[in-house]
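$ ./design --mode recover --in tokens.txt
reading tokens...
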């Protein structure tokens, strides 16, 4: 089943640099958010789906670095962070949840360009 999901989510090698840039842009946009709204939570879900798609696509074209696993983990962690944000009842809990999300998003911002570079390396 996971293989089927990966094939559905995967994009072609030509689209991978754009997808990596989109994941980075989404992470930057989410990092700037300060309120928990339905649109913000939907944005986290969209980011998670795109990160998972990037993971599946990297795996499909044969990127042997840890990048497919990293983006898979980012996708899963984003959903966990969204749940933490929804469950946060106090200002301290919300601040902790936002901090945890921002750490994850900062990682995505730093690593997404590496994914685009890995695509170029895999095509050589």
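writing sequence...
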């Amino acid at each position: 089943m996971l293989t089927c999901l990966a094939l559905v989510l995967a994009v072609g090698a030509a689209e991978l640099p754009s997808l990596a840039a989109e994941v980075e842009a989404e992470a930057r946009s989410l990092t700037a958010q300060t309120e928990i709204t339905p649109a913000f939570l939907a944005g986290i879900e969209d980011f998670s789906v795109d990160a998972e798609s990037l993971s599946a696509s990297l795996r499909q074209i044969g990127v042997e670095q840890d990048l497919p696993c990293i983006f898979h983990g980012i996708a899963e962690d984003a959903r966990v962070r969204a749940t933490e944000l929804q469950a946060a009842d106090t200002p301290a809990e919300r601040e902790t949840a936002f901090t945890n999300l921002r750490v994850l998003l900062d990682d995505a911002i730093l690593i997404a360009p590496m994914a685009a570079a890995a695509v170029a390396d895999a095509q050589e």
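exit 0
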